[in-house]
């Protein structure tokens, strides 16, 4: 039976320039490979060593990129290795099969959200009304499933984020602060549900996962084995569980370590 590897992307496998955390002397910094270009500018990177490891992983397991990005944002990424048959976008709202969203899966997800959560329009209106223009730079809706703000992190009132979390909790939504983005996401919209669907379709006998943010919590818990880096929301809160290994590496070197861990688990299966 195949091994399924479902991994978050941003700040888990790929990193913006601001998230690289290159704390070593310049002469010892790893060589980097650009894996995303947006509006003619390089945007995301991994180490060249990590790129080689990901290519090996794609040949050895069912690798499933698993992201909160929209489909359009995901399709900007050019990962090394064989093109993944499956990808999970919009935090589980879209299951891509050979690059195309599965309409049945999306219909099931949207029906669940309509039944269990406050509508997106209510959450969007609250964000527009309650967020301070001093630190908000952009308001965005992702694939008509959830909303997020792009903020100036240095000016952000983090007590406001906590208050938003309480407000959202009472309406069946959750809040996640990742870098310069504040996400408001319906609770039933999960990467874990989509991962279980891919495992069912592929007949996977073992599931592995990695992620750094609050939105990756259930993905890690749903997998047989999980890893989280030494940075991100989960590290900040000290999140762990018996099936989850906490790694000390931070920044782009954490992505390299995670891929080594994946390959070790796949080869030992």
Q: Approximately how much helix is present in the residues? A: 25-40%
Quickly count the helices. Answer: 9
Structural class: alpha/beta
* Beta-strand percentage range: 25-35%
Distance between the termini: 10 Å
User: Strands of the largest sheet, in order across it?
Assistant: 4-1-12-13-14
Shape: globular
Q: Unreliable segments (pLDDT under 50, ≥5 consecutive)?
A: none
Order of helices and strands: EEEHEHEEEHHEEHEEHEHEHEH
Total number of strands: 14
Biggest sheet layout: 5 strands, parallel
Q: What gyration radius follows from the Cα positions, in whole Å?
A: 18 Å
Any chance you could write out the topology, listing elements then pairs?
Layout: E1 3-7, E2 32-38, E3 41-47, H1 48-60, E4 62-65, H2 71-74, E5 86-89, E6 94-97, E7 100-101, H3 103-116, H4 120-130, E8 136-142, E9 146-151, H5 158-169, E10 173-178, E11 181-186, H6 191-202, E12 206-210, H7 217-222, E13 225-228, H8 233-237, E14 244-246, H9 252-268
Summarize this entry quickly.
The protein is of the alpha/beta class. It is built from 9 helices and 14 strands. α1 (48-60) runs parallel beside α9.
Please provide a written account of the structure:
The longest helix has 17 residues, at 252-268. This protein starts with a strand and ends with a helix. It is α/β, with parallel strands linked by helices and 269 residues long. The protein has helices at 48-60, 71-74, 103-116, 120-130, 158-169, 191-202, 217-222, 233-237, 252-268, and strands at residues 3-7, 32-38, 41-47, 62-65, 86-89, 94-97, 100-101, 136-142, 146-151, 173-178, 181-186, 206-210, 225-228, 244-246. The protein has a 5-stranded parallel β-sheet, sandwiched between helices. The chain has 9 helices and 14 strands. The model has no long low-confidence stretch (mean pLDDT 96). The protein is 35% helix and 26% strand.
């Amino acid at each position: 039976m195949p091994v399924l590897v479902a991994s978050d992307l941003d700040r888990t496998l790929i990193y913006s320039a601001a998230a690289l955390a290159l704390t070593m002397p310049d002469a010892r910094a790893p060589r980097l490979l650009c894996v995303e270009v947006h509006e003619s500018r390089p945007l995301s990177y991994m180490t060249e060593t990590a790129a080689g490891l990901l290519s090996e992983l794609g040949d050895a397991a069912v690798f499933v990129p698993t992201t909160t990005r929209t489909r359009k944002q995901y399709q900007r990424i050019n990962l090394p290795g064989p093109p993944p048959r499956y990808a999970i976008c919009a935090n589980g709202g879209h299951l891509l099969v050979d690059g195309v969203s599965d309409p049945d899966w999306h219909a099931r997800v949207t029906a669940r959200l309509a039944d269990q959560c406050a509508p997106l329009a209510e959450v969007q209106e609250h964000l527009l009304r309650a967020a301070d223009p001093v630190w908000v730079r952009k308001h965005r809706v992702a694939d008509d499933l959830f909303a997020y703000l792009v903020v100036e992190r240095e000016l952000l009132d983090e007590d406001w984020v906590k208050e938003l979390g309480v407000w959202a909790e009472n309406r069946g939504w959750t809040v996640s602060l990742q870098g310069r983005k504040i996400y408001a996401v319906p609770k039933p919209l999960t990467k874990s549900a989509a991962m279980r669907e891919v495992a069912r379709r592929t007949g996977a006998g073992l599931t592995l996962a990695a992620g750094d943010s609050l939105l990756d919590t259930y993905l890690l818990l749903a997998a047989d084995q999980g890893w989280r880096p030494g940075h991100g929301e989960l590290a900040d809160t000290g999140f762990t569980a018996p099936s989850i290994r906490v790694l000390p590496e931070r920044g782009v070197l954490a992505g390299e370590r995670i891929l080594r861990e994946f390959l070790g688990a796949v080869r030992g299966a």
